[in-house]
């Protein structure tokens, strides 16, 4: 089974769909967000992804008044979430820029009003963050859009994933294996879950959302058959913010996309054959003919 986002088909042996997760790494600055879209486009990523919240709804009650040190001074966690949230005008500017650069854009809505907000902007797909996998009301709203849904499965049990898929259905769904630690240590990657998910949900494209340092684990996921790779991106890992340390800088994203395409080429079709390029070495080296 395949899923189509914009003009790109995911699954069914197609090239890996690369999502550059901008998330909150724009730090509330539209110009930084545009530069990150440029980074994704220059690297050859298929899409960029943001996060969309209604802070009054999506901010956990126990976190609302927790003080946070920010570049704009000390404020509550709720004030910080409100400070960095983009509105309609900002997203229209970012959508125009993404269109100009030839990449799709969509977001992870964290509450039902954010689904409606993104639908008004006609996004081609929606992403469910791992933290939202158990939010049935949100999943129902996403299902009702009829758009493709990409579901991250970090911090979730098999039973919780089953329940989420029971709400969303499998007809227009992409699953992403993930481990929700930032940054993730290699021993927690558990990449063999990728084929496990593929066997548990036949026909559903399965990919990988990574929060590790470096490229090796994401590239190994492609070798294991990941149809999607999502990685956070940043202009500079030393920037202020919680996700920058687990993000790829521009050169890292360039290398990731380059190496994914090399691996895809190297995987081949699984049919054992003798290549024309082997004929000369065969004539020179094989002592006993077949």
UniProtKB/TrEMBL annotation:
Protein name: N-acetylneuraminate synthase family protein
InterPro entries assigned: Aldolase_TIM (IPR013785), PseI-like (IPR051690), PseI/NeuA/B-like_N (IPR013132)
Organism (species): Microbacterium aquimaris
One Pfam family linked to the record: NeuB
PseI/NeuA/B-like domain ranges (all copies): 36-272
């Amino acid at each position: 089974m395949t899923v189509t986002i914009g003009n790109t088909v995911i699954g069914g042996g197609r090239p890996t769909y690369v999502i550059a997760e901008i998330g909150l790494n724009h730090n509330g600055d539209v110009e930084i967000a545009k530069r990150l879209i440029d980074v994704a486009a220059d690297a050859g990523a298929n899409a960029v992804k943001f996060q969309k919240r209604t802070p009054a709804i999506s901010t956990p009650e126990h976190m609302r008044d927790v003080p946070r040190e920010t570049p704009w001074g000390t404020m509550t966690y709720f004030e910080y979430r409100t400070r960095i949230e983009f509105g309609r005008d900002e997203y229209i500017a970012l959508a125009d820029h993404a269109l100009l650069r030839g990449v799709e854009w969509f977001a992870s809505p964290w509450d039902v009003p954010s689904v409606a907000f993104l639908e008004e902007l006609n996004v081609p797909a929606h992403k469910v963050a791992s933290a939202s996998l158990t939010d049935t009301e949100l999943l129902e709203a996403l299902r009702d859009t009829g758009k493709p849904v990409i579901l991250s499965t970090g911090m979730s049990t098999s039973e919780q994933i089953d329940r989420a898929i029971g709400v969303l259905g499998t007809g227009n769904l992409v699953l992403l294996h993930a481990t929700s630690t930032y940054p993730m240590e290699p021993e927690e990657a558990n990449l063999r879950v990728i084929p496990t998910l593929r066997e548990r949900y036949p026909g559903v494209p399965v990919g990988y959302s990574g929060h590790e340092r470096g490229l090796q684990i994401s590239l190994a996921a492609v070798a294991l058959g990941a149809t999607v790779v999502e990685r956070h991106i940043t202009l500079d890992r030393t920037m202020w913010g919680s996700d920058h340390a687990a993000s790829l800088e521009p050169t890292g994203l360039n290398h990731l996309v380059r190496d994914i395409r090399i691996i895809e080429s190297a995987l081949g079709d699984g049919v054992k054959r003798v290549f024309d390029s082997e004929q000369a070495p065969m004539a020179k080296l094989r002592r006993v003919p077949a």
